[in-house]
Structures are given as structure tokens and as C-alpha cells.
Amino acid sequence: MEPLIDTSRYPVTNAIGDFIRASMPGPMAELTNIVLAVVSLLAVVGLTPVALIWMERKVAAHFQARLGPMRVGYHGLLQPLADGIKLIFKEVMKPEGADTFVFFLAPILSATASFMVLTVVPFDHHLQVTDVGGGVLYVIAVAGLGIMGVLLAGWSSNNKYSLLGAMRSGAQMISYEISLALLMLLIVLLSGTASLREIVFSQAGTVLDWWIFKFPLFGFVTFVLFLISSTAELNRAPFDMAEAESELTGGFSTEYSGISFAMFFLAEFVNMFVAAALTTTFFLGGFLAPQFGLAPLDRMLDAIPGFIWFFLKSYSVIFIYMWFRWTFPRPRVDQLMNLEWKILVPANFFLLLIAGFFVVMGWL
Amino acid sequence: MADQQTASPVVTTENGIALAVPPGFNIKRREGHTDEYFLNMGPQHPSTHGVLRLMLRMDGENVLEVVPHLGYIHRGLEKIGENQTYLQNIHLTDRLDYLSSFMNNLALCLTIEKAMGIGVPERGEYIRVMACELQRIQSHLLWWGVFGMDLGAITSFLYGFKEREMITDIFEEMCGARLTMNFFRPGGSFVDVPDTFIPRVKAVVEKMKTAIDEYDTLLTNNVIMHLRTKGIGVLSAEAALAYGCSGPVLRGSGVALDVRRSDPYSIYDRFDFDIPVGTVGDCFDRYKVRMEEMRQSIRILEQAVRYFPGGPHRSPRIANYKVPAGSHYSQVETARGLLGVYLEADGGPKPYRIKYRTPSFSNLSVLNDLAAGHKIADLVPIIATLDVVIPDIDR
After folding, report:
1. What gap in Å lies between CA B385 and CA B207, rounded to an integer?
2. Test the B interface: residue of A158, A228, A332 with most B CBs within 10 Å
3. The pTM is what?
4. Which residues of A touch B162 (CB under 8 A)?
5. Residue B379 touches partner A, C-beta closer than 8 Å
6. Which end of chain B is more exposed for a tag (fewer CB within 10 A), N or C?
């Protein structure tokens, strides 16, 4: 099959990348570009949790009729920094009888996995580290690595609460991976490509061409199911069985402190951003500006750079995740499994069937 | 409870590992199953509400047996009480169930009044009833918030505290304390209520009417909440009576026993209120009973505000309270159930022996019956709906 885009121009397909390619000899330009891409991703990984921690604390506070952090910086803007510094300076403790190597490997693994998904996320027309042809498959594969971190953390901590949390999260994430994969497959079926960039371009046009609206009615259902599944996959409240602080004190992360806990913390927030980014890419037109079919308005919206739209949409989805977290009680672990295997999986298969029917009939 | 046994028996597992069994368990090995294990829950655990320590015998996520261990906050209040005068004993009752300190004060004052034949003026009685009912709401609000938090809905905690704060402020203005009140004295209360008391109570009553509906929207009508509480921890009426449960735990099982109605003290017989009861006796019923009790307390407060009289707030003080020799008993309905004060007096200024029959102790004793066979996640709402206060158990 013919490659849909010119992959030789990756990574960094924007003006900076072209400038480096023009000014340096071939192999060196490639290397510089890769380093640039990784550094900019690191910046995203580093700054996203900072923004999200502040946002989470503020959203939680306002849901709970209070103000949240107000003292460190303007409206507590520097609070995440204070949190981070506190965590870095805390003693890293290892419980007696813990498996040292695995115990310290687990948080790194967790953070790495969430970092790796970001490489295929299209932030803008020319802002994507690499566009793998089977991007969706890559996302599913790499996201699975994150479970390893949680499982190993629980297993190596030598703590029964951690172990219970890890087993829960293992069962939960593997189950919800299935419905997440089915939903991604549905989008692949609709858009006819597995490359994330191409999926975004398949939604070009007006707002009604986004998959959330374009696939009539079912698109919205798919969107909601995707939100539910990704919340469970993220191990976030109300599906935070692995942590479940009221039952398991801290679940898999009970024994972690200092910077090794911060790694899990970081992974959680980056994962949330990744999930929101994927939701945006699959359903909300990714970096495309919303178009309403009104020429003057559309031109104005289009003038705003794509990555701003991308972050705007992603953060709106993140707000929904936070809304979930601060409103709902937590179901029991077996009820969560029931939800997955008895409701979500059959529903996803049904949606896949409908989508196939639509595609075959050429209604989309 | 369980610490009486000294030597712990040892079971040998199939692969030859000797496993020390914590005291209080009757462990059985089952054929062809996963190994059971013990889990220590508490005294430092987010949902054991203080320093309750539970030893759990577990099979995976399933709880097979629960043995509570007590004594982590035992202060010997009953023994201390023997060396304190009757008035000095009142502040010790604050420390029983710190969320019902007014009612605890009242229980001791009633015993002394009954024994010495001290009367209470009309205004004093109204102050007592209103303070107690305000505190019942306050206590249930804290319980509601914490219950939500135990289920993972942290927001409810803050919502419960918002209205609770209004009530706590009233108490602060009344007696200077927000938690340990030490307010009632034999014959009334140690000071009169301020002029702002009635307007502030009116404001709380108005606020609570809408607030409880808000709580229903936030938690009661949530489908996940129903999944987590319906059919969980079913306590039959017979078992509840046999264990000596009282308060919302007993009423949740369908037994309409409330000391305010069955053995009216103070002026509770003048007020019109209902006793909510459950049908099944599960966590949801106990939850509903407490929510309804808040509404009933509001009804009592409304009536009390309407008829609040003037006059003195306490009968003339006595320099030295000397309870006549003999046994004296009286009981009140606290937010957690029946609190009985049994007083053995020798005619001196100090009690010879004082015994508190506290509701949380009996209510906790049903824990194993309720939790065995459920998941560890269900143990949390079960403990929460039993609403035990640990200092009330340990005294």
C-alpha cells in the first residue's frame, strides 16, 4: 500500500525541521531533529502535569464550594511547583522485603509508557514526532505497558494492600483495553485509516464532519463509551479501584514516597492528557478548527493555530474527566467488571456492526 | 474483645509453612482453594474512622471473618470519674462520643437530677432539646460527608461540612466550644443562650430544608451509591435486638425503638415527630433512616423555635451536688443510639462507680455478621453505616 504521507520528512515536519535539514548534512540533521522532537515532547510531559495539577485542584475546589490553592502565586498558579519541590526533597523509602530493582523500575516504566504514546499524537498540521501507519495499533500496544508499571509496583512493594490494588488494576485495565481497542477499531473502520494524522484529516469540513456527529447518533454513544472506557483505563475516579484510598489506603502506590511517587503522579496526569488527546483526535477533529459553514466566522476560527484548538479540545475533555472524579462514588471492583463484560463489550460489538453497515452502504 | 486468648494457634499449610493465626479467629483450611491470608486494617486506616483496628481473614478480595480489636483510645473515663465530683464528671462525658457531647452531658445531668429531685425551668428544657437536635443534625451531617468519602465521592464531605459549620458556629456562640461542649448542668445549662440563638436556628432550619434535597441529588439518588449499599450488610431485626444495637442501626432493621419516644426524657413528649424505620436492614436502609432523622430533627427544631419561652435558664444552683446513696440510671437517645448512665452513689460528692452504656460498642459487635462473605470494598460502607465513634467504644 502506498504511504499516505511522506514519512521521510519526519520527525518535525515544520519550518524548524526544514531549516535544520537545509543547513546541516543529512545524518546530522536527522539526529538534531530527533533530539529536538524528544526535547519538545519532554517539555510537554513536564508541563502538562503542572497545568493539570493546578487545574485539578481548582476544579475540585470549585466543585466543592471552596477556593482551592490561593497563596502560592496568583490564584495558586505556582502550587504545582511547590508540590513538585516538596516531593523531590522527600526521602525515598523502600519497605523491608521489597524487590529493590522492580520496586524502583515500576514508576519509571509507568512514566515512560505514557510518554511513548505522545510520539504519535498529532498536535498540529506539522507538529507530530512521527506518524506511524498503524498509529492506533501502536497506541494500544504502548498503553498496555503502563499496566506493567502498576502491576510491578504492587507486586514488589511487599504489602498486601499494594498487591490487592495491583491485581485489581491488572484485571481492570486488561478488560477495559478490550473495549477501548474495539472503539478505536470502530474509528479506523469509519475513517479508513489507522494513522492518527489521517484520522484527523478524515474529519475535515464543518463541525458536523467530526466523528462524534458524522456517525449519526451512534457517534455520540461511541464518544460516551470511549470516555467511560478511558476513565477506567486511566485508573481514575470513579474507577480508581487500584488506589481506592478508602479501602486500600493507597493501593499500588501505598509504599511509594518522594520522587518515585511523583513518577506515578506524573504518569497519571500525562495519561489523562494522552487519553484526552486521543479522544480529541478520534472524535473532535483533532487540531482542526471548528467550522460552522459561515464564511467570515470560519476564516476567523481558522486563523487560530491548530495546536491551540488541539489543547483547547483536550483540556475540555480533561475537564469532563475531572467532573466525573469529583461527582461520582466509586463502584465495587466486581461491578466494574460486570459493566465491562456485560454492557460495554456487547455494546461496542453492536456499534462496530452498525459502523460496518454504514460503511458498506456508503452512508458516511 | 479478642485479646483475651494468649497463645496463638498455628496452622500448617499444604506446602508446610506454619502460619500463626491472630487471636480471635477460628481458621479452617478448605480443600482445593486459594490460600487465605490475614489483613490488618487500622488503627491507622482512612476508613476505620479513628483508631479502630480490624483483623480480616481474607480470600482474595472476599472478607471471611472480621475481628475488631479495641483499646487504642482507652482513657479509663469511668475510673477517672470516681475521683471527680459530679460536676467535674460532666466534661468527661464530652469525651465519650465527641459528636454527641450535648446528649452525653444530658444523660449524666438527667441521672443526677432524677436522683436529687432537681427540676429544670421551661426555658432550660427548650435549650436542651434544641441543642440536642441541632447536634443530631450536626453529627449526621458529618456522618453523611464521611460516608460519601468512604464510597469515593469526596465532594459530599465538603458539602456536609458546609452546613455543619453553621451549626457549629451556633454552638461556639452558645458555650465557646465547637466540639466538647460541657454545657448542661443539673437543673439546666451553665449559661443562657445569646439573643442571636433563635434567629440563627431559624436560618439553619431554612437552610437545611433545601440542603437535604441537595444531598439527595448528590448522593442518595446516585445509581453507583445504590449498587454499593443495597443488599450489603443486611442486619435482621432479631440479630439487631440480640446484639443490643440501638439508634439508626436498630431502626434501619425495622425496629421503631427510640428513647425519645419510648421513654421520653426532658420535654420530648411535647413534640410531634416521626421515627423513621427501614425495611431490609441493609446499608441503604441505615443511610435512609439517618437522612430522614435529620428531617425529623428539623421538625422538632421548628416547633421548639415557635414556642421558645422566656424566664430562667436553670434552677438555683447547689454548691455541692451530693447524689443520695443508691443506684441511679437514666438514658438518652444520642445520634448513635441509646446512651445509658448507671450511677452507684454513696452519698458523697463523688460517684462510687459510674458506668456508661454506650451505643457504639453494641453497634460494632455486629460487624462480623454483616461483613463476612462480602468484599473488602463492602466493609467500608458497612463500617460507615454502623457509624461507630471509637472513643465511645473504648471510653
Report:
1. 25
2. A332
3. 0.83
4. 65
5. yes
6. N
User: Mind listing the pLDDT tens digit of every residue in chain B (395 residues)?
Assistant: 444 444 455 655 555 555 566 666 655 555 555 677 788 887 888 777 778 888 888 887 888 888 888 888 888 888 998 998 888 888 888 888 888 899 999 999 999 998 888 888 988 999 999 999 999 999 999 999 889 888 888 888 888 888 899 999 999 998 888 888 889 988 888 888 888 889 999 999 998 988 888 888 888 888 888 888 888 888 888 888 898 899 899 998 888 888 888 888 888 888 888 889 888 888 899 999 999 999 999 999 999 998 888 888 888 888 888 888 889 999 999 988 899 999 998 888 889 999 999 898 888 889 888 888 888 888 888 988 888 888 888 88
Which residues of chain A neighbour B151 with C-beta distances below 8 Å? 246, 329-330
Residues B251/B277, Cβ–Cβ less than 8 Å = yes
Q: Does B19 touch chain A (CB under 8 A)?
A: no
B152 in contact with chain A, both atoms CB, cutoff 8 A: yes
Q: How far is CA A112 from the centre of its chain?
A: 13
What's the ipTM?
Answer: 0.78
| Count of other CB atoms within 10 angstroms of residue A38 | 14
Query: CA A227, CA B351: separation in Å to the nearest integer?
Result: 65
Q: Which residues of A touch B287 (CB under 8 A)?
A: none
Is B144 an 8 Å CB contact of chain A?
no
Using the Cβ of A14 and the Cβ atoms of chain B, whether some distance falls under 8 Å is answered with no
Q: Which residues contact B72 (CB under 8 A, 6 or more apart)?
A: B43, B51, B52, B53, B390, B394
Flag whether residue B151 sits within 8 Å of chain A, measured between CB atoms: yes
Distance CA B23, CA B68 (A): 11
Please say whether the beta carbons of A354 and A220 come within 8 A. no
